[in-house]
Request: fold
Amino acid sequence: MLLKLLKITIVTATIYHAVPEQTDSTPFITASNRVINKANPQGHRWVAVSRDLEALGFTFGTYICVEGAGNMDGLWRVEDRMNKRFTQRIDFLVNEEMKGGKWNNVKIWIEST
Reply:
């Protein structure tokens, strides 16, 4: 029997919008060069990760499970990178109608397929 080890990482989770004030001069293009749907960014279920998490395997295209962020829990895909000033953090891409959102001690792990 082959056992898969589940490595859980604890992070702070926040939200972000595809706007220049929160991204860069190309808010609808992620760091992985994916194009964000302007009408429904949250429909992608994409997250940005802090750069320190990339060394743990949370890299572009990786599906992660999120637990402890209320209605944001579930399966998300890493498609963006956060500013280097952040560590141990993920950012949910959401529609602009959603205001505010921060969760501490959120569990994330890589979803094995």
Notes: The mean pLDDT is 92.
